[in-house]
């Protein structure tokens, strides 16, 4: 989609099969209430006492293979079997270790480094591995040495061919101030290669909830939605899922609401960095109309510059102006980052801005929006473990998941419940974050095939703890006609709206 000259991409997802879950409204609400986070004084005290990890510097030298030195070395074979080339999972480069039936065991070792830590210190070890052929066995070893003493910490894995896999484990040192070295051993039944990237070993210590706004970790409920469930100052519902839309090119949805006879529960809008005035006016109007504003911004500087604080003044001005709005607002920065640049810098940008926005605006929920497909089925560099902000509070994880039937003339439909709602809801539960669809849609042929897809999908999302189902009612940068342009699609959308909660006016 492109709004006001700002290019925003669409990714339509292709899968197989259809599974639509239909639950009575009361049952869906009951499931959602059961999944809602507790807000008792005991729960609040428990969250405030929460600890989080603080990591030390990386003890593995040149673990990303981006520099020519210091070099990693082979242990039992010719150094020619170890090459450094392009195609890393975390950076531009990676190491390649070649093996064969004649040379079935190949070992590569990092340069050693002193670990400034006492005996019993926790150390988090991580390395990405990839095998070229099935059957390759990989052993990852963190070695501690001090004088003649040697201690090993071992993990053995069988990587999926041609797919990056992160090997991670936490150990406690057995020696004081040891020299540490990471070794990777590949066993080959025939000719093949083992690829390595992103090797690290970092000390880990826990701090008791060092946060910029600990009082905001668990927000109290401040009002009641139309379905009888409560909602927080940041707009997070106790149960149920807001249903709404991105309408046109940030167009006023009043006409659509009049046609349907129901107001939107959530409204998505999109802005460039210069659109703060327009965004604030629109969000204020949405709150006055009883809609939850979910707004997305592109940024005034690069991700790296924002991560370094160059955009803090712009962000604070935006947050403080949104804080003056008498109702909740959801905010996202640079949604769908996949393919737009260094996603490591994007993640660091999110980690810097999240606590600041939440501190400067106690009515603003900080949201992070991804495509969904890339995180579950795409490259390892776009996985949730690689992209999700670390050590900061995010209120809502948004995903842009579409019904792909009719896209580009292809009559193949993805099963959004099985392929997306189930794994995403499980991940969100483990992460302690609410989740929802920031965009979704289905084509005219899909509506003819299944005229109740919106209603049933919104119910299935709410039953799994999802908090938003946002339809992309717009023609911008679309690979199919998602617009609510037929009677069947409008009726389906209206049905979903009637069964979803709205904010009070």
From TrEMBL:
Family the UniProt entry places it in: Belongs to the glycosyl hydrolase 26 family.
Q: What is this protein called?
A: GH26 domain-containing protein
UniProt KW NADP keyword: no
- Which GO MF terms does the UniProt record name? hydrolase activity, hydrolyzing O-glycosyl compounds
Its keywords, alphabetically, are: Glycosidase, Hydrolase
Q: Which residues form the active site?
A: 336 (proton donor), 439 (nucleophile)
Q: Where is the GH26 domain positioned along the sequence? A: 213-505
InterPro entries the UniProt entry points to:
GH, GH26_dom
Origin: domain of life:
Bacteria
